[in-house]
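Customer ticket, subject: "Can you confirm the structure for Formimidoylglutamase?"

Message body: Hello, I'm evaluating your service for our small team and ran a test protein. I'd like someone to confirm that this is what the system normally returns, since I don't have a reference to compare against.
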Amino acid sequence: MSTAAPEWTGRTDGPGPEHRRWHNAIGESPGTAGVSLIGFPSDIGVRRNGGRPGAQAGPGAIRAALGSFAIPPEVVVHDAGDVAVTGDALEAAQDDLAGAVAAQLGAGNLPFVLGGGHETAYGSYLGLARSGLLDGRRLGVLNLDAHFDLREAERPSSGTPFRQIAAAEAERGAEFTYAAIGISQPGNTAALFTTAAELGVRHLLDLDCQERHVEDVLEFVRAFTADVDALYLSIDLDVLPAAQAPGVSAPSTLGVPAAVVVEVCRLVGDDPKLVLADITELNPTYDIDHRTARIAARLVHTITMGAADRSVPEGH
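Agent reply: Thanks for trying us out. I re-ran your input and got the following:
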């Protein structure tokens, strides 16, 4: 079940398309394909994973930060509202998120899910799988994250989504094609690195994603996307340095600089293979001067600008 899109607010400089901002653009072009935001206000998975709660307020904080961002007249953006999340019912909420994602794909939109904890990712993936868009296609999952999120656990959490996706891909007879950028060695046990190796996961350590390595990072992304037919981008804001993104469920000890993350988002946003994106782990409770919300909004904006005037790939 979803709730209606909230009212958007932001700076107003005057009438006319030359003054257009996100708060003006949302809902301005009904029926026209574009980027469609879906909120998933959940931190159930974060709590199950031992993280600090608060990510359920993430979607609202990202929208508030986006509201005053200037956006060109030709860029179409929609807000599909929030998926209702109640109590500890994570699995039911993920199922509802899947329905919302599939509906937006069916309408020709590029769904952009605003988390929530990284448990968002499994619901996002389920919607893509249900949409039929993956039939006969090889899916690539690109995760910007300090963690692999390949944990085994009795109950799904923010630490398990990509292990769940691996199992679901195997069920549909597909190869699990997953890459992670920004992995923190201290943040992942030897067992997780072993699991990643067994699943054929490609990854770059945070040490190898600093600004002097930006061209290597972009080449890694290009090589990964060249091997797939459809691309799902998942962003965990804890991939960023804690000084740039203090408001997350688990702050980074090193992180990938925002300038590098933005360059990856520019590259991926321009890629016609991109069919789904989400951004997760914004925890406004611990944000300082809205730093994390603002960088989250900048990443959403960057990908949206790249994806402007694109539709779902042919064959859907």
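A couple of notes from the result: Confidence is low (pLDDT under 50) at residues 311-316. Strands lie at 2-3, 35-40, 77-83, 110-115, 139-144, 178-183, 202-205, 230-236, 274-280. Feel free to reply with more questions.
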